[in-house]
Automatic annotation (TrEMBL):
This is Lipoprotein. Keywords: Signal. Residues 1-21 form the signal peptide. PROSITE patterns: PROKAR_LIPOPROTEIN. It comes from the Bacteria.
Length: 161
């Protein structure tokens, strides 16, 4: 579980427990005890769903990169633009790939979205197909969901094939 997910889940548990404590705790299994139990369960569920989402995105990125046959490392030929947000609230970044080969090539590029603390929030793979020899191609990488707070995009794996 990422640090962001742990902090969010911990904060949710603390808020819920503080609210219950303010309403009067009881060891008799009454309403206060039930509320605390439900709040803790809900917070754990939120943290679990966030971790599962990141694990799913990471697995999908790995699957897509593993499916590239004959790919060579192209990190030096790929650049990321400034991170932004689209009209649906998802983080975006323009990916530019320079084809330095002497034939048409395609690119598969992994983009890692991170929070200000460097915690991994999301992973996506974008493809840039059929870039002519000596030319550049672009694509936009979008996070799989809305990401909270300041987000940066980093270059993961980049393959030319």
């Amino acid at each position: 579980m990422s640090g962001q997910v742990r902090r969010s889940a911990t904060a949710a548990v603390l808020v819920a427990l503080t609210a219950v404590a303010g309403s009067g705790c009881s060891d008799d299994g009454g309403p206060a005890s039930d509320a605390a139990s439900k709040a803790a369960s809900a917070a754990a569920s939120v943290g679990s769903r966030a971790a599962e989402g990141l694990a799913s995105a990471t697995a999908e990125a790995k699957r897509r990169l593993d499916s590239v046959k004959g790919g060579v490392d192209a990190k030096k030929d790929v650049k990321l633009g400034a991170t932004g947000t689209d009209d649906r609230g998802r983080s975006t970044v323009t990916v530019t790939a320079d084809n330095t080969a002497d034939t048409k090539k395609s690119f598969a590029v992994q983009v890692d979205f991170r929070d200000a603390g460097g915690n991994l929030l999301d992973v996506v793979v974008v493809t840039i197909p059929d870039v002519a020899a000596g030319k550049s191609g672009t694509a936009t990488a979008r996070s799989t969901h809305k990401l909270a707070g300041p987000v940066t995009a980093g270059l993961g794996t980049a393959l030319r094939y």
